[in-house]
Amino acid sequence: MNRRTFLGQTLAAGGALALPWIRPARALGRDGAVAPSEKIVLGGIGLGPRGQYDLSMMLPEKDVHFVAVCDVQRRRREQVKRMVDAHYGNTDCVMYRDMFELLARPDIDAVLIATGDHWHALAALLAAQAGKDVYSEKPCGLTIHEIQSLADGLQRYGRVFQAGTQRRSISNFQYAVHLAQRGSLGRLHTLHASVYVPAKSYAWLPAEPEPPRDQCDWDRWLGPAPWRPYNSRYVSGGWRGHHDFEAGGNFLDWGAHTVDLCQWANQADHTMPLEYEATPTAVVAKYANGVKLICDFLPTAFGNRDPQYRTSSGTCPVRFEGDEGWVETGDNGKIVLSDNLAKFQTGQLGGTGLSSAGHGRNFFDCVKSRAWPVCNPGVMRRAHIACFAAQLAWQLGRKLTLDPVKEEFVGDEEANRMRRRATREPWSFNL
Amino acid sequence: MSAAVNPLKLMRRRFVLLTVMAAGLLAAHATAADSPGEKTRKLIEVLQSNSPFYDKARACQQLGECGQREAVPALAALLADEHLSAYARSGLEGIPDPSAAEALRAAAAALHGNLLAGVIDSLGVLRDAQAVGLLRKLAEDPAAGVSQAAWLALGRIATDESVRILQQTLAQGAATNRAGAAAACLLAAEQQLAEGRAGPATALYDAVRQADVPPVLRAGATRGAIVTRKIEGVRLLIEQLRSKDRLLRNAALFAIREIPSDTLANALNAELSCAVPELQFQLLAALADCHNAQSLQVLQAKTASDDAEVRKTALRVLGQIGGTAEAGVFLQAVADNRSVEESALAMNYLGQMKGAAVDEQIVKTMVSATDAGVRVQLIRLLERRRTLNVTGALLKQAADPDAKVSVAALRALQFLAGPRELSALIGLTKAGRDEAVREAAAQAVLGACTRTDATAPGGAVVLAELQQTTDPALKNAWIRILVSLGYAKALPAILATLHDTQEAVAVNTLAHLARWPDPSPIDELLSVVQTGATPALRQHALRSAIQLATTAADAHQSPDETVAGWFQRASPAAQTPAERRLLISGLGRLQTLASFRLVAPYLEDPDVQNEAAMAIVQMAPALKPDDSAALQEALAKIAARVKNADIRNAALKLTGPSAHQSQQTSLFDGRSLAGWEGNPKVWRVRDGVIVGGSLQGNPRNEFLATARNFTNFVLRVEYKLVGTAGFVNGGVQFRSVRVPRPPNEMSGFQADIGAGHSGCLYDESRRNKFLARATDEQIKRLEKAGDWNRYEVRCVGPRIQIRLNGAPTVDYTETDPALPQHGLIALQIHGGCKAEISFRNLTIEDLAQP
């Protein structure tokens, strides 16, 4: 169907963007009004390795039916189609290069978004406007401003949204937070969130000739990011580390998870730390109630964790310390406790911290009930902003103070200016 | 990030072969040490020069972060550039000066298409009030092609003037303009709310709701209209819940979570009594986020609904927000047993409820439930809750005629029963007609006996039963329990049953005795091997005797010679191939000269030649070279005759002159660290001993490594580890390499030392896991903590063997062919502890290449 007539608007030669909510009433979808006995119709946008992993957890859900995938790279859309068709035993999965075509489908209730960092927020907003509920991989936006725009927009359109910080749905992390919240550790004083050693690159990879659009739509891959010449490495995971494409100098890769868990443990989902100061090995943040949040830099994803954490905890470890004891846990599923709290030992709990099965289920339940998922926009917003603030404190090399209500840095114009960047035309966060 | 700089090749931006331009290039232009003014000046220079595209792009971004107003003209000049425009806008959006917006407005007059849309976006971001006029014109001009962008920018700006324009358009504009204005109104309303002007915001939302615009926008406005009214919004909310339009209903459901209140909870409670079925379960779910005391009653009632989804949701929400007072409702759900899901939900929440009052209710429901399946569920619940004081009720259930119930109750009693229930359980074992019930009862007896040091009294009671009964099945059950308890006093009575008139009894006893915790029954067993009345008795006795001897060998329960003696006595009786294999396998575990001599003859036995060869090949490295002649002869025989190629090759490797020679070279001269390299602040020589680490603290892992690599060898060292805090640990690294980053680490195999890991094989900074471990009991028994210990590491091809104070703790064969079979040897002190590790008498015996 010709997009112009379908959307009922004439486009000028400049190709200014037609936003998806301009559509005739009769083409209305269900707007996520899925009865308990019905299936949720799901689409996917930008499903690379992580997205395909998430999808592999979602396909087995009996009340979910995946119908379409969109990707600017042909290889990826074909991979997903193969995976989905094999699961259902048919050839029904539709492929799109253009996100708007997928979003215009009235039958789709929700979308899974797993593009690179720089597309997460805008894709989610466009989906929200198109009446779709969203499960978005983390980090959910590239800057503080993107996170704010995203959270505001999701609220504006009343959408069900789940941020892909799935460790809130994994039993060993839940248990550790439960201990912290109910006072089993005494009064909390220090929370440890493991993150990668931050690093940021402004360098560009060498220019390569752009491939045909059907193979890789470079302009669309860039989307809201400022233009730079194509290089095949960007589109196969090599976008990591680049200022224009990765959120927060790889701080948020684990930080989005571990800081989120600390916020939860501290029952601080409605707020965030006020002060952020970088040391050579960590960023130390402080809440209004005096609790410290220490984002420890780990040089590698695997290997020795001593002395900050137990190597046996695995990846993404967190540790919560109170004046009566501490608990540590990570992706290996074990609960490690101070000796005096041995009575709380439960043995192996989680399977792996990477699994998004439970988190996806929570999202799907909420699509039906219209409840707010565990990592809803408000929770996501504050955990993410705390991460960005920590990363900025590292980047600027000075102490930052944040007003958690206004979400502004106090007395630091440069830090405030770094909350935002322009959006490449014709894309816009004014939605 | 590369510091190299290469010149541009071509200027055509699309297909240019740009090489990597490092940020370092910019350093030539602006440094952190510059004042903001200086920085701005230098960056302006870049923009206005012939600098490469990359430099200009970066300059724009930096100006956005810290540039001053002087940069505005230079940035504005780039707004017409296809690719630099967005960078320039980053710069302009960042600079807090009215000249930035002014420049954008000026550009709007000259640009078209996407570039114009970008400028409009920036004007919206800056909330430039002075742009309202030009934005209105662009919004209403379809030919300009930027209508939507302009409407939305007006929405962001949200001055009174722009809001008036939006409202006018809502009422009177063309269709697409109305839609754009409506979306803009949603943005404007949020701005008004942020300024504390709820009244105008509500009016704006109401206007959109009534406008002829796409439904999704009206739904968004509905949500806003409800929420801005706060408590007053409840009526509107309920009204929307009753709408036929799903979008509006969903908007209302969303709003519930934003304005929860007691008033709203009351309204929701009331609504549930009349809502259409489709909405019921959504409203129930909403109660989780907005409820009061009456909501609990509503939920309780809904757990009896005809609709399964409603019941399930009600149970779930009740579980989330209710307390132990809801136990009755959940128990009712279990008793009603309407679906697997509901029962599971109810059981889950009951499981979480603490307190004796809940236990009592569960017991009551269990007792009165007519359905056996329900009773079984509730029994399991009591078992999971580890409920105290329910053993009486469970014993009654254990006597239930329905075997399923009886077995479930007995299973629970296995975990909950103690000495007080023992006699009742014994009674049940005796009375059980069903074999499953009797088994479960016997297990329960065992459980009761093992609770709280009750082993001795419990064992005595069971022993008394054994001595009184004539029933063979019961004898079997009692003996099984007594063997599981390892109750020494019962051994005579147990052994007496070996001469029981009923052969089945004796055979059972013989089988059970294989599990006796120590070798005490062996003599008696060996006697039966010789003198047993039937072949069956003799065979069972032999099996169990060999089993006990094998266990004794593995766990070093008796001196090697004694164990060898047992095998020797058993061996004539091992007739069938299976028995001979059992014997050979056991001898293979003993790994002494005596056991070798017993195995060697079996090389001539075609039925078990392979097994004998395997046992000898496995034993060979552990044997001292004293009897090497006989061993060499055996190995040569194996290499020549055995059909299995792997065994032949293994034997070949073990033969040869290198097996004779023990050329042990010293690795440490007793005075200096010649031949070693490591951090001199950490490693030193003291009193003829290598010392690493400090009791003041070791911040990180440190290794002292040999200068050369080793492939196949026997490494012998003595170590002593003392520590007072932290992870007191060290190790001996081998077939390893130093890791480039961080430089203090090494990667490869490690024979671990300390913190409960001595004698174990760990894969350091590689697969990061233990490849083979000794048991905790072994480590405790073998290691002398804080004192000198002998450590031996033998590497031959893929096989790694470790001995601690002479006893073998690890025998591991690496299966990954990609891993190197050579590398450095190193000594480790672990990071994160206050500890010191010492090494002496370090020797290496190079083994020839296989």
Description:
The complex is a heterodimer of chains A (431) and B (850). Helices cover 30% and strands 16% of the residues of chain A. Chain A is an alpha/beta fold and 431 residues long. In chain A, the strands form 2 sheets. Chain A has a 9-stranded mixed β-sheet with strand order 13-12-11-7-10-9-8-14-15. In chain A, strand 1, helix 2 and strand 2 (64-70) form a beta-alpha-beta unit. The two termini of chain A are 24 Å apart. By secondary structure, chain B is of the alpha+beta class. Among the domains of chain B are: 31-111, no CATH class; 127-259, Leucine-rich Repeat Variant, CATH 1.25.10.10; 664-846, Exo-inulinase, domain 1 (Jelly Rolls). In chain B, strands 1, 3, 4, 6, 11, 12, 13 and 15 form an 8-stranded antiparallel β-sheet that branches. Chain B has a 7-stranded antiparallel β-sheet with strand order 2-5-14-7-8-9-10, with no helix packed on it. At the A-B interface, helix 6 and helix 12 of A face helix 3, helix 5, helix 7, helix 9 and helix 11 of B.
Name the descriptors.
heterodimer; A: six-stranded parallel beta sheet; 15 strands; B: alpha+beta; Leucine-rich Repeat Variant; Jelly Rolls; eight-stranded antiparallel beta sheet; 11% strand
What is the fold's blueprint, element by element?
The complex is a heterodimer of chains A (431) and B (850).
Chain A: H1 3-7, E1 40-45, H2 49-58, E2 64-70, H3 74-88, E3 94-96, H4 99-103, E4 110-113, H5 117-129, E5 133-136, H6 144-156, E6 161-163, H7 171-181, E7 188-196, H8 218-222, H9 251-265, E8 275-278, E9 282-286, E10 292-298, E11 318-322, E12 325-329, E13 335-337, H10 357-369, H11 377-396, E14 400-403, E15 408-409, H12 413-417
Parallel strand pairs in A: 1-2, 1-4, 2-3, 4-5, 5-6, 7-10
Antiparallel strand pairs in A: 7-11, 8-9, 8-14, 9-10, 11-12, 12-13, 14-15
Helix pairs in contact in A: 5-6, 6-11, 7-9, 9-11
Chain B: H1 23-27, H2 36-48, H3 53-66, H4 72-76, H5 84-94, H6 98-110, H7 113-126, H8 132-140, H9 147-157, H10 160-172, H11 175-194, H12 198-210, H13 215-229, H14 233-241, H15 246-256, H16 262-272, H17 277-287, H18 293-302, H19 308-321, H20 327-336, H21 340-352, H22 356-368, H23 372-385, H24 391-398, H25 403-416, H26 422-431, H27 435-450, H28 455-468, H29 472-485, H30 491-496, H31 503-513, H32 522-531, H33 535-554, H34 560-570, H35 577-590, H36 593-599, H37 609-619, H38 628-641, H39 645-654, H40 657-660, E1 664-666, E2 676-677, E3 683-686, E4 689-692, E5 702-706, E6 713-726, E7 730-738, E8 746-753, E9 761-764, E10 770-772, H41 776-782, E11 789-796, E12 799-804, E13 807-813, E14 824-829, E15 833-846
Antiparallel strand pairs in B: 1-15, 2-5, 3-4, 4-15, 5-14, 6-11, 6-15, 7-8, 7-14, 8-9, 9-10, 11-12, 12-13
Helix pairs in contact in B: 2-3, 3-5, 5-7, 6-7, 7-9, 8-9, 9-11, 10-11, 11-12, 11-13, 12-13, 13-14, 13-15, 14-15, 16-17, 17-19, 18-19, 19-21, 20-21, 20-22, 21-23, 22-23, 23-25, 24-25, 25-27, 26-27, 27-28, 27-29, 28-29, 29-31, 31-33, 32-33, 33-34, 33-35, 34-35, 35-36, 35-37, 37-39, 38-39
